[in-house]
Amino acid sequence: MRNAILPSDPFNLIIAGVGGQGNVLASQVVGNMLMEKGFTITIGETFGASQRGGSVMSHLRISAGLTFSPQIPRGSSHLVVSLEPTEAIRVLKDYGNPGVSVLCNMRPIHSVGVICGEMSYPSREDLEKWIRMLSKQAWFVDTTDAAMKLGNPVFGNIMLVGALAATGILPLDRETFKNVISRTMTDTKVEMNLKAFDQGQAMLSN
Amino acid sequence: MSYVVNGESGRKYLLRGNEAIARGALEAGISVAAGYPGTPSSEIIENLAEASKERPLYVEWSTNEKVALEVAAAASFAGLRSLCAMKQNGVNVASDFLLHLAITGTRGGMVLLPCDDPGSLSSANEGESRHFARLVEIPLLEPADFQEAKDILKWAYELSESIHNVVMVRSVTRLSHASGQVVLGELPRTEARAFFRHGENIMDTLNGAVVTLPVVPRHIQQQEKLKKVVSFFEDSPFNTYSGPPSPELLLITSSVCSLYSMEAVRILGLENRVGILKLGTTWPLPPKLLERHLALTDRILIVEEVISFLEDNVKILAAESAAKVGIKTFYGKSDGSIPSTGELNPDAVIKALMRILQIEYRDMPDDYAQKAGEIALIGAPGREMTFCPGCPHRASFWSIHNALEMDNRRGFVCGDIGCYSMAIFPTGFKTMKTQHAMGSGMGIASGFGKLGMFGMDQPILAVSGDSTFFHAVLPALVNAVHNKSDVILVVLDNGGTAMTGFQPHPGLAVDASGNEVPGIDIARVCEGIGAYVRTCDPFDLEETQRTLLEMMENRQGVRVLILKKACALSPERKNKRDYKMSVDETVCLGENCGCNRFCTRIFKCPGLIWNKEKGVATIDEAICTGCGVCTSICPAGAIKKEVA
Fold first, then answer.
1. Residue B272 and residue B246: Cα distance in Å, rounded?
2. How far apart are the CA of B16 and the nearest CA of chain A, in angstroms?
3. What confidence tens digit (pLDDT) does each residue in B600-639 have?
4. Same structural domain for residues B229 and B255?
5. The CATH number of the domain where A61 resides is what?
6. Given CB atoms, is A122 within the 8 Å cutoff of chain B?
7. B175, B381, B387: residue with CB nearest A114
8. Does A97 touch chain B (CB under 8 A)?
9. Which ipTM score applies to this complex?
10. Do A93 and B363 touch (CB under 8 A)?
């Protein structure tokens, strides 16, 4: 069934964000898509108490055939996909390395420390500059804004999956995406999610 | 994406550990499952409850873990296979019955499945269930990956029926909440019939009454069962060795730590120097298997999470077998190679191996680590835990905080665990001053409420969730009424067991499988035991504060205030906005207002943010839930709500 080769084995993908952004769903969708392609997938997820406005992170280990630890070792991520820019930096501090790629949704979610003025939220220019400094290549997109135009900010995660497919780093395509979501979603939901996926894919192609 | 019931036998699926466990229980042909919600265990019962809609299966969310274990035991006594799932705290609650159950033994196969949470990723303690297995003398199994999480269940039921006792199968967060590949087996047809045999001979454990007396002869029976377990464990397929025939170091591990260990050995390229003995049967340890592996080398590293269990038991065996296997040097908790707190990961095992074998390894280039650290300091502002936008708890604690301030006698809140534990943080205005086990807030408040005779005149409040009320608050509330304690219980009734994903509880008119059942009214229960009871909508800040203040100042004895509003994430409120919120920028005076940015500095709802450029508060449309509460806190009246 396997028809693609991984850039490395295991390939370590981190999907990060803030509780409520749909991080867990994105990681399950990507995991199932890659499994469909014949890879062995292990996903470690942080949810529970941490989902209440806290940082959340999924660790995906993608391999030709081995089950790896649900936690990626320090400094060894290959690709970081972040639903929130400061979360990308938080992940890079522990799991980054000079060869890592980053795909990031730039819509900020202010923590309470920022809201009350104890901490300040960095500018978009600084965030992009820092993420570039800490990665080999980086893509910046605005999926939350596009998702809100589509009717619900929660589609931001699926748009990011579409954008992830467009990077070409992993063998992810529209048909597999459709197969995976069709197993559990109603037709109307599948249609909305495909639209979100397509828009996300287009963000990188344009 | 649940394939727990409908997945095809022989096919591979990506399953969460908890889904694999639920599937394993179904493949083993269980008839009854019971539990109490608790992260990271809740999805086991949830998945089985879903399955109960299609299969002959009874599943319940019980009032608490002790009752859950009793319900599951009844099924076993009637000859059925049963499962009881809970988080590690639950085993403490259930332990009184567990000790008795371990003595009487079981009939139909019975598995107790606790999910521990090393590192307290979503717990209020780092307690462990493994030690209970040794304490009450029952077998302990620990699956190490996703396939094993399913397969070990079937084996556990066979073991339970061979020895006629309950078997503990222990999972952890990083297995229960992680996902991996699982090849499914067949789901059997179950046509079990329930019948409880209670013949005259009480020493006949399979046909007589199920009792612990006479204790000592029964205890002897129980220990004989445990001896029998050892012979099964010697040949268990869940104990495996990988590595060279004569390793320099033998690493002994269990559970998800075996995945960390394998990865660490692989990263350091030590496959020819380090052997890994992965144990799936961790109590009682199989001595012959251990002796065979201890004989391979003189240096042993034990890798396990939180306090030592495996390490102690292996050391005892090694001491007893010293004549056969020789003197060993042990590494693990006692020499500091492996930490005794927090969860492990591959990095922790790498560190231990570097230290023991004196090898070098760099996980991140120094200059990158320094640069990333410096950037993160300014580029990744901390994200402390907070109540969600639209959470009724923020409004409730705001009112509690204000009422206590207005009362001005330095009153305080006693609490326990749940989302509302966050009232110890600024998001709950730091109103909660004691925080322990479920129900402890009420019990401690009951005690504080009797200290008036020693001059204590501070108002004493306790808080409880609606699910917690039934779980463990009720006995403490009865205690307070009976002993004439002066205390106010505030029930934060958000319509479900919210923190763990809205599992129903006895207060609701629906059960785990979605059937209609009688819901028990909290207000009527409290009135029935003699408390003064009031109910308010916490989003009505004025009315709530007035009621609370009146309760504090004009009344004595046990008073109960029920603050009723569904959780913002509940199916009832999710994606539905009551109001469209906006800030009138011509009215908001920003830093120039005497309020000192009250809304964003004190109230701190994540949906209400500060626009630095314009110097005004602003609504974050992406996350605001439109609850409308902030309208009533702005002194300038700048926050507008419009019916959505």
1. 9
2. 9
3. 999 999 999 999 889 999 999 888 999 999 999 999 999 9
4. no
5. 3.40.920.10
6. yes
7. B381
8. yes
9. 0.95
10. no
